[in-house]
Amino acid sequence: MQREDNDHLVISSDPNHPANLIPELCRKFYQLGWVTGTGGGTSIKQDNLIYIAPSGVQKELIKSENIFVLSFPTPKYPPSDRKYIRKPMGLKPSACTPLFLAAFERGAGCSIHTHSQWAVLVTLLVEKVHGKGACFEISNVEQIKGIPRGRTKTGMLGFHDTLRIPIIENTPFEEDLTGSLEKAMEEYPDTYAVLVRRHGIYVWGDNPAKAKTQCESLDYLFQLAVEMHKLGLPWI
Ligand SMILES: CSCCC(=O)C(=O)COP(=O)(O)O
Ligand SMILES: [Zn+2]
């Protein structure tokens, strides 16, 4: 049943409650330039509930009462079949919802979408190989250790390991990225992120802290790669 109230699901004095964490994370991401101009967003899964930020709003101004709540599992399509249990009046759920759900279906506890310029720039430096999808690769940089080996493995990548992040092509509407994002997730079962050419990145993690730090490590590596490229240094 769709409800417009259910305020108790988003009102909490606990700073780690998803409805408090999402606004807090969005404020941090805004300061980093990742979600300016209403772009990007964040979603958290806790038990069988998904908390989602609203669409097309200033992400740094989101309040707990603006948060949508979905019962998980839920159909991704059509949007009218999704099991919303809290829908704030006058707001629309993030257009990233089916992409966030794709990460939750694969065990994630938090999914972040940013429009980081470093992420966009690396997608312009990595070309599509004929017959294969494009992929950002980097190795021999300490910060690679901030990324887990993968969903099917334990521990973090090592200094000499190669980090691979698939790149998918952008589409006119955010929702339409879902098919290619899921294909990339199948082709790279150990990835925790997918870059979207000329758009940004989706990053997910087991919980909000891991998703955030993985997002930070990746952004560091993208910036480094772009700066190395500018200096004429190979980054791989
Ligand atoms: C200028 S933002 C264009 C839409 C977009 O790419 C995006 O990430 C915004 O998603 P929302 O959560 O606001 O629906
Ligand atoms: Zn976007």
From TrEMBL:
Substrate binds at residue 96. Its EC number is 4.2.1.109. It is found in: Cytoplasm. Its cofactor is Zn(2+). Pathway: Amino-acid biosynthesis; L-methionine biosynthesis via salvage pathway; L-methionine from S-methyl-5-thio-alpha-D-ribose 1-phosphate: step 2/6. This is Methylthioribulose-1-phosphate dehydratase. It comes from Endocarpon pusillum. Gene3D superfamilies: Class II aldolase/adducin N-terminal domain (3.40.225.10). One of its GO terms (molecular function) is zinc ion binding.
